[in-house]
Design brief:
heterodimer, A: alpha+beta, B: 8-stranded antiparallel barrel, 4 helices
Chain lengths: 469, 241
């Protein structure tokens, strides 16, 4: 979120007023590492727990202004009043003038006592001096102090009362509203069970049974009876048991802060088969959760979040932390395990009840390509659902297509040459469709309207000119 | 004295205005057709389709759930006996939608929605009886419509169209319109002179529609059920121009 943004932290306005400062010397934080938890504000001088644990880097750039550099070096000090008593400060960086005008430092440089220190501050000073000891250079130049605060404590209250409702590839996690004033948002993390986390049972049982029965009866009466009974029973039962549950990949998420509005059934949870992940009350360990971007739910009274892009049939373990203004997390909530499931829409209920009357969809493209899942057909479906129906009159156009499509599709399907031609045409068109989707229906509609208006204006203007002429 | 003169002048002005022929005669603009926008509830009888086992519509959307139908209609009055009756043909189309939470395969309510969209199209013949409004001063116009329907429907699930189809049918619709011209006759006449709108009216009509495939049972049944079998009502606003 913050990457690439430039923040001017210190301006030399006050510099001239400070004792020992002769000329304008300014320092900017040119960049800082991406803060994966994000800060609520733009206060780059605040370091939260995530910044500290990952030891993010700051790059400071010095603007020398009119300061004379001859025989001097740049030093970066950390301490309370370095411009007066540099000997009491730590030098945490130096620079080779005149080419190198920047310092790169980590939070560990600024806070050597580690991330456990509560409410620590680091005051940074840049001095342009002939030596590191200012007492030998009373005419050195000093920047104003840049104060950076370490805030590592999160909200006291973790979300409680987690419940979940599922959809196809999605889960909505809800929790009890938190009234605490220091909560400014929430972060929800989940751990996915392995795609093969279904328990396979593997049992090998071989049973072979051979039964041979021979019965011979001979009598003297020249009666010969010979009965041969041979029974062979062979039973093979093969079952494999392979308990395989694999979970460890912490996954972050990007969810939409949509207030939970209507009823999606009662919240549910399952017995967790997902191993790993946190327990209730466990401290948030930044290293435990990787791979997510820095989005978070910056709504203090949010009570739910919808997580999409999940895989049906895979169990996920979810937990929520509340965040304070600095982006520091509370301890974990009680985790909850849920498995998204396929859902049954009305078409399936209707068809399942024996309902008839429905046609195909994407009729012509499906006929031309032979498959509803052909990549081009997918593009065209996307085009219909994301672009066409959003245009004014788009739904009517789609409806008209549905009315005429099946008949046209039947014609296409029956003729190989036509099928190939239509497939080629649609492939070309799918490229246009991708382009139109990237423009978006709203911009396209405005652009089209502007073109029509321009055309009308020109069209109306031309005859008038001719008449005038 | 001066005050008395003013009153006399005002009375004279009123008298002049009330005299027949004192004002320029109002000549209505020619009338060609009508346009209506109307709304009403619509609970389709999907579950009445022959051969269905179960009640898929009631199961999914609820037994008594009605859609909200919005419809536009444009008529051409090709034969007019001014002030008595008119005959016309028209077309209409509308849109209605019902949605509900999809169920999970294990039977629970889910986060996902499933949607039934219906777009009714109709070709209609229309008879409007204007005689009461034009000759008897009663601002009511009775009318009767009848024609053929084509109801286009499509089902959404997981954000995509899952299935679609069309159901043909027929309908008859008696109705009653209340002309609004009389509430402000001057404005109505000005409106006519400036825009060509002869009358504006609100109306209520009963719709008896059999949208079940015209005898073929392989179509989704979409007849209304709000006022008895095959019946519903629509109300709206219209103009004749």
């Amino acid at each position: 979120m913050l990457k690439g943004q430039h923040y001017i932290i210190a301006i030399a306005a006050a510099a001239l007023a400070l004792p020992g400062v002769a000329q304008a010397l300014t320092v900017e934080v040119e960049s800082r590492d991406d803060n994966s938890w994000g800060l609520q504000g733009e206060d780059t001088s605040m370091v939260n727990l995530a910044d500290c644990q990952t030891s993010i880097e700051y790059t400071l750039t010095v603007n020398l202004g009119t300061a004379a550099t001859s025989g001097r070096l740049l030093y970066l000090y950390e301490g309370s009043t370095c411009n007066d008593t540099p000997e009491d400060c730590r030098i945490i960086g130096d620079s080779n003038l005149p080419t190198d005008l920047s310092f790169t430092l980590t939070t560990a440089d600024m806070f050597p006592d580690g991330c456990d220190t509560t409410d620590a501050t680091a005051s940074l000073w840049v001095g342009l001096l002939s030596s590191e000891n200012q007492t030998e250079d009373d005419f050195g130049f000093w920047s104003p102090a840049l104060t950076i605060t370490l805030d590592v404590s999160g909200p006291a209250t973790a979300p409680t009362g987690l419940s979940a409702t599922v959809g196809s590839g999605n889960v909505r996690i809800s929790w009890t509203e938190i009234a605490a004033g220091d909560v400014t948002g929430f972060r929800l993390v989940y751990w996915a069970g392995d795609a093969d986390s279904d328990t396979d049972t593997d049992t090998d049982t071989d049973t072979d049974t051979d039964t041979d029965t021979d019965t011979d009866t001979d009598t003297d009466t020249d009666t010969d009876t010979d009965t041969d009974t041979d029974t062979d029973t062979d039973t093979d039962t093969d079952t494999d048991t392979d308990a395989d549950t694999d979970t460890d990949t912490g996954t972050g998420l990007d969810f939409s802060p949509v207030p939970y509005a209507d009823d999606a059934g009662t919240g549910s949870s399952e017995e967790c088969t997902v191993t790993g992940g946190p327990s209730a009350g466990e401290t948030y360990d930044h290293d435990l959760v990787t791979g997510y971007n820095d989005s978070q739910l910056a709504i203090a009274d949010a009570t739910s979040a919808l997580i999409e892009g999940l895989t049906n049939g895979v169990q996920y373990k979810f937990a929520v932390v509340s965040l304070d203004e600095a982006g520091n997390p509370s301890v974990f909530s009680e985790p909850i395990c849920v498995t998204p499931e396929e859902t049954i829409d009305f078409s399936e209920v209707y068809s399942g009840a024996g309902g008839k009357g429905g046609g195909e969809f994407c009729f012509i493209a499906t006929a031309a390509f032979g498959s509803y899942d052909h990549p081009v057909v997918r593009v065209l479906r996307d085009f219909r659902d994301r672009f066409l129906v959003e245009l004014p009159g788009g739904r009517t156009a789609v409806a008209a297509y549905y009315a005429a499509g099946p008949s046209l599709a039947a014609v296409v399907a029956d003729r190989a040459g036509l099928r190939a031609a239509v497939a080629e045409g649609l492939t070309v068109f799918s490229g246009t469709a991708i382009g139109l989707m990237s423009i978006g229906p709203t911009r396209f509609a405005f652009g089209l309207a502007a073109c029509i208006a321009l055309g009308l204006a020109i069209g109306l203007a031309l005859p008038r000119r001719r008449r005038d002429a | 004295m001066k005050r008395l003169s003013l009153v006399a002048a005002a009375l004279a002005a009123v008298m002049v205005c009330l005299l027949p022929g004192a004002t320029s005669a109002y000549v209505p603009s020619p009338q060609y057709g009508a346009f209506e926008i109307k709304f009403g509830p619509y609970r389709p009888n999907v579950d009445d389709q022959p051969g269905l086992t179960g009640t898929p519509y009631a199961t999914t959307f609820g037994k008594n759930e009605s859609m909200f139908l919005t419809e536009l209609e444009l008529d051409w009055q090709f034969l007019r006996f001014d002030g008595i009756i008119s005959f016309g043909v028209g077309g209409s189309f509308g849109f209605m939608q019902e949605y509900a939470r999809s169920q999970t395969v294990s039977g629970a309510s889910s986060n996902d929605y499933t949607v039934l969209n219906v777009m009714p199209f109709a070709l209609l013949g229309i008879i409007r009886v204007d005689v009461l409004a034009d000759k008897a001063g009663v601002p009511l116009v009775a009318y009767f419509k009848g024609g053929l329907n084509w109801y286009l429907w499509w089902i959404l699930g997981a954000g995509e169209t899952q299935e679609s189809g069309g159901t043909p049918g027929w309908q008859i619709s008696p109705g009653l319109a209340l002309r609004l011209d009389g509430f402000d006759r001057m404005s109505a006449r000005t409106f006519d002179n400036e825009t060509g709108v002869n009358h504006s009216f609100i109306f209520f009509e009963y719709v008896f529609a059999v949208v079940e495939g015209l005898g073929q049972d392989d179509h989704m049944c979409l007849s209304p059920m709000n006022m008895g079998p095959h019946g519903t009502w629509l109300a709206g606003l219209g103009i004749e121009f």
